[in-house]
Amino acid sequence: MRVNFTVNGRQQEADDVWEGESLLYVLRERMGLPGSKNACEQGECGSCTVRLDGVPVCSCLVAAGQVEGREVVTVEGLADFAKQRAEHGCATRACGTSLQDAQQWEAGPQHSQTGEGAELSPIQQAFIDAGAVQCGFCTPGLLVAADELLERNAEPSDADIREALSGNLCRCTGYEKILDAVRLAAARQEEAV
Amino acid sequence: MPQNTPVATAPAGTPTSISQGSRTKGGIGESTLRPDGTLKVTGEFAYSSDMWHEDMLWGHTLRSTVAHAEIKSIDVSEALATPGVYAVLTYDDLPTEVKNYGLEIQDTPVLAHGKVRHHGEPVALVAADHPETARRAAAKIKIEYVELPLITDEASATAPDAVLVHEGRADHHIGHVPHPNILHRQPIVRGNADEAAERADVIVKGDYTFGMQDQAFLGPESGLAVPSEDGGVELYVATQWLHSDLRQIAPVLGLPEEKVRMTLSGVGGAFGGREDLSMQIHACLLALRTGKPVKIVYNRFESFFGHVHRHPAKLHYEHGATRDGKLTHMKCRIVLDGGAYASASPAVVGNAASLSVGPYVLDDVDIEALALYSNNPPCGAMRGFGAVQACFAYEAQMDKLAAELDMDPVEFRQLNAMEQGTLMPTGQPVDSPAPVAELLRRVKARPLPPEQQWLAAGEEADVRALPGGLSNTTHGEGVVRGVGYAVGIKNVGFSEGFDDYSTARVRMEVVGGEPVVTVHTAMAEVGQGGVTVHAQIARTELGVAQVTIRPADTQVGSAGSTSASRQTYVTGGAVKHTCENVREKVLEIGRRRFGSYHPAWATAELRLEGGKVVTDGGEVLADLVDVLESEAVDLELEWRHRPTEAFDLVTGQGNGHVQYSFAAHRAVVEVDTELGLVKVIELAVAQDVGKALNPLSVVGQIQGGTTQGLGVAVMEEIIVDPKTAKVRNPSFTDYLIPTILDTPTIPVDVLELADDHAPYGLRGVGEAPTLSSTPAVLAAIRNATGLELNRTPVRPEHLTGT
C-alpha cells in the first residue's frame, strides 16, 4: 500500500508498504531516517519514541497505515521543531506547518562530520552537556519524550521527570545524568524566558 | 541469481572521522564533552543496525527450538524456493575445514553440525530481499530433531551416566578437570584453612545462588557485510574487539585476514555481550555466497539467544572469626554454569577463584571455582566477570559474621579490610593503594535520606516514591526501611599471563595554519567515552586543541578488548606512549631547525603546550606551526602493561592480575512487606579511580555500573526451565531491567589515589561499581525484613513467603 504523512514538517510518501510494517520500519528503512531506534519492538524500551500529532508514541507499535495523513516528528526534526515552538509558541499540529514552510523545507546545513555547529534544541544540548549520552542508543527516544515533557511542564519536579521518562530504558547511565540533563534544559528554558 | 558479483560503493552509515576542538586546554582531568555527542543527539550517529547499502539483502538466522538434540535431517527446499530468497545456508555449505570458532577454545559451531547443544543455537541462514521474507522462509526450513538427555546443573553434569556435552575434548583444560562436563577448575590453597578454623570463635556457613543476568545492551546485534572486488569482504559491525573477531572470522571464510576488512560501526552498549561473535561470520558467508551486501539485525528476542550471559552460580562459603572480630579463615566452592560452549568461562573461573576472598585480609583459605559445560544457554563475559557472583556471597557472609559477633557490619569489614601490601590468596601483593576501609567510611558518613519521603511533597502520599510506584499498591502501610553496605574488589585488564597490549597511531601535522593531531586506534567505543579520553590525552601530551579521532578499524593494530575496565589504561596508555614518541620526533625537528637559536633546545625539559614548544620554565621556544611546517610526524606503536603470570593449576598461586579496583556501596531500601515489593531509595557509592581522566564520564560509568548491580538484585534474571533447558523470558516484557522509576539517586564519591604503575595513575573504572551494588541492596532488604535471602535476584515471593 501507499502511505502519505508528514515527517518533520515535510510531506512524505512511502510505496509498497506491507500491512504488517510499523511506522518505525517505514521511517528507518524506507525514508532514510534511522535516528529512531529499534531495541525491543514491543513498546517496552521507548528507543523508537516519536511524536504522532504531538503525542509521544512508540513507533514500533504503530502500524504504518495508521499514520496516513498525520504528522510525525522524529529526533532528526527535533531541533527544528523546538525552534519553531520557541519562535511561534507552538510547533504541534494545533498551529500546523504552513504549506509555504513545508514546501521550503530542506535538510539542515550539512555539518562537518563531527556535527559541530549543528543547531540543537535545548534538550539535545543539555544531554551533551550533562553527560547523559553514553552509547546513545536510547538517546533519540529519550530526547523526544523529554522535549514533550518540557513542552507541557516547564518546571518538572524530579518525580515528574521520572514519570515522564519511565517508558524509556537506558542501560548505560543509571539515569542520573539524564535527570540532570532535563533539569538543566528546564533551567535554561526558564532563564531564556 | 548473480553469483559473486562484486559491489564497490561505501554503504550509508559508514563511520567517518570525528574532529573536536577545545576552547580550554581540554586535557586529562577536565570533563570535556563527548566528540560524538552531537551526532548522537541528532540521530545522525550510525549504529550497526543503521547501515544501509543499495541492493542489500537481509539475513536471518534459524535457531534450534530444543536444547539438546541430534539433527536427523534438514530440508531447506521450500525455503529456497520462496520468492525473494537468495540463499539458504547450513553446515554443509561452510566453505573451509574451519567450522568452529571461540574466544579461547574453538568449540562453537558456526552452524550446528548434527547436533544442537542449547536452545537457540544457529542451525541455518537465509538471505532475502526483505527481513520478513527472510524470517518466513526460515520458518519453512524443516529440521528433524531427536532429543537427547539434558545436562542442566552440577548433579546432572557429573552423574555417573551423564552424557557428554562435548565428546572427545582436546582443549588445554581437559587434563586437569575431574570430569569432561567440567570446562575448567581453579583451586587456590594458601595457608591452612582447617588449622586456622580451630582459632575461630564463630563459624558462619552459607549457600548462595546467583541468577543468570543478561547484558541487555539496547542496540541489538547487527552489522553489514559487503563483498569486495578482490574476493574479500568489508564488515561493519558492533563489537568489543575487532581484531579478536577477525582472528575467528577469517579462517572460517577461508580468507587471509587482510581480505576481511572490519570497521567498527556505532555500538549500542556492550557490557561483555559483544566479546563473542554473533552475526559476523553469518553475514559474511551470506554476502560471499550471494555477491550482495547482507545486513543482519537481531530483534530483542533473538538478541537474548545471540550472546552469552552472566554465569549463574551456586556458591558455598565458610568463614570463621575470633570474638574480637578478626577473620580466621575462609573456604569456598563456586560452581559457575558455563552452558553449552566455552566462551570466556575459563577466565571467569580464574577471576571468581582469585577474587573470591574479597577485599579482606585472609591468610588461610581453601578455594575452588569451576565452570560446567551444560545444555543451558552459553555464559561468558559480563561487566564484573566472575567477581560479581563472589562479591554477592562473601558480602552476605560478612553481614552474617558481624551479626554473630554483635558488631557493626561496616566496622567489622573495616577491621578486616585489605590495604596496600596485603597478599591476595594467590600470593600476589596488592602494590598500589587499596582504600577499602576509607571507601566504607565515606558511604557510611553520608547523611541518610529522610524517612517517609513519599510524604515530602505534602499531605498526600506520592506513590511514585513508594514500593509499587504508579501501580498505587500502598500509601505507606506495611512499608519498612533497611540499610545495607557492601564493598568489592575487581581486577583491571586481562590476567593470567595474557599478552594484553594495545596499538595507537598518532599523526601530528599543520592543517589550516593550526597544529592538529589525528588518533587512530582499533578501540571499540561502546559508549564508555574512550574517544573522549583519547582526544584529552592527545591534547595533554601534544599541546594542541584540535584532535581528530579516526574510526576504529582493522587497518591499524589491535587495541585489545573493550572489557575488563582496561581501555583507558591500555589503549589510553598506548595513545599516551605514542604521543610521547611523536613529541620526541617533533622536538628533534625543532632542534634541527631552531636548535642553534636558543640554548634551551639542548638543555631544558621541553613540553608542547598551547600549540608551542615551551621549556619547563614556561619560556616559549617556537610555534609548532613553524617547527612542523609541511612535515607530518606519524607513528604507530604498541604498548603493554606489566606482564602477569598464570595461576598454578593446583595451588592457584601466581601474580595473575595487573591492577585492582575498589568500590563500596550503601543501599537504602523500602520494602512493602505485604506485597514483597522493594523500592531502592538511595544507592550511595564511593570508588577509588586513581585519576579521573574525565570526571563526568567516570561518574557516569559508576552510576551505570551501580544500576546494573541494582537490576540483578531485584529484577533481572533469565529464567531457564530446568526440565527443558529452554529460555522462558527472552523479551523486555519478561526480562526486566531498571527503569528511571526503579533507579534511585546515586550519589558518587570519587577518590583519586594514584596507582604509580598505571598511565597518569589511573585505575580502571567500569566494573567495580557493578560488584558491591547487588550485595548492598540485598543487605538492605535483609536489614528491613530480617529474612536470610541467599539468592539474587530477590522476587516478591521470597519476601512474602507465598
Can you characterise this structure?
The complex is a heterodimer of chains A (193) and B (802). Chain A has helices at residues 23-30, 78-88, 99-104, 122-129, 139-152, 158-164, 176-192; strands at 3-7, 10-14, 49-52, 55-58, 71-73. Chain A is α+β, with helices and mostly antiparallel strands and 193 residues long. Chain A has 2 domains: 3-92 and 98-104, Beta-grasp domain (Ubiquitin-like (UB roll), Roll); 122-192, Orthogonal Bundle (DNA polymerase, domain 1), CATH 1.10.150.120. In chain B, 25% of the residues lie in helices and 25% in strands. The radius of gyration of chain B is 27 Å and the shape is globular. Chain B starts with 17 loop residues before the first strand and ends with a helix. At the A-B interface, α4, α5, α6 and α7 of A face β1, α1 and α17 of B.
How would you sum up this structure in a few lines?
The complex is a heterodimer of chains A (193) and B (802). Chain A has 7 helices and 5 strands; from the N terminus they run ββαβββαααααα. With 193 residues, chain A is α+β, with helices and mostly antiparallel strands.
Task: Please give a handful of descriptors for the protein shown.
heterodimer, A: 193 residues, Ubiquitin-like (UB roll), DNA polymerase, domain 1, 2 domains, five-stranded mixed sheet, 37% helix, B: 802 residues, alpha+beta, Aldehyde Oxidoreductase, domain 3, Aldehyde Oxidoreductase, domain 4, seven-stranded mixed sheet, six-stranded mixed sheet
Which SSEs are present, and which pair or pack?
The complex is a heterodimer of chains A (193) and B (802).
Chain A lengths: L2 E5 L2 E5 L8 H8 L18 E4 L2 E4 L12 E3 L4 H11 L10 H6 L17 H8 L9 H14 L5 H7 L11 H17 L1
Parallel strand pairs in A: 1-5
Antiparallel strand pairs in A: 1-2, 3-4, 3-5
Helix pairs in contact in A: 4-7
Chain B lengths: L17 E3 L16 H6 L14 E7 L5 E7 L1 H4 L4 E5 L10 E2 L6 E2 L5 E2 L5 E7 L2 H9 L2 E6 L6 H5 L23 E9 L2 H5 L4 E9 L11 E6 L5 E5 L4 H12 L6 E5 L15 H11 L3 E4 L2 H7 L2 E2 L2 E9 L5 E11 L7 H10 L10 E8 L6 E2 L6 H18 L4 H8 L19 H10 L33 E14 L8 E11 L2 E7 L9 H13 L3 E4 L17 H28 L5 H4 L2 E4 L2 E4 L4 E4 H5 L4 E8 L18 E14 L4 E12 L6 H20 L33 E4 L16 H18 L5 E2 L3 H5 L2
Parallel strand pairs in B: 2-15, 11-32, 13-14, 16-20, 18-19, 23-24, 30-31
Antiparallel strand pairs in B: 1-24, 2-8, 3-7, 3-9, 4-8, 5-6, 10-19, 11-17, 12-13, 12-15, 17-18, 21-29, 22-23, 22-28, 25-26, 26-27, 29-30
Helix pairs in contact in B: 6-7, 9-10, 10-18, 11-12, 13-14, 17-18
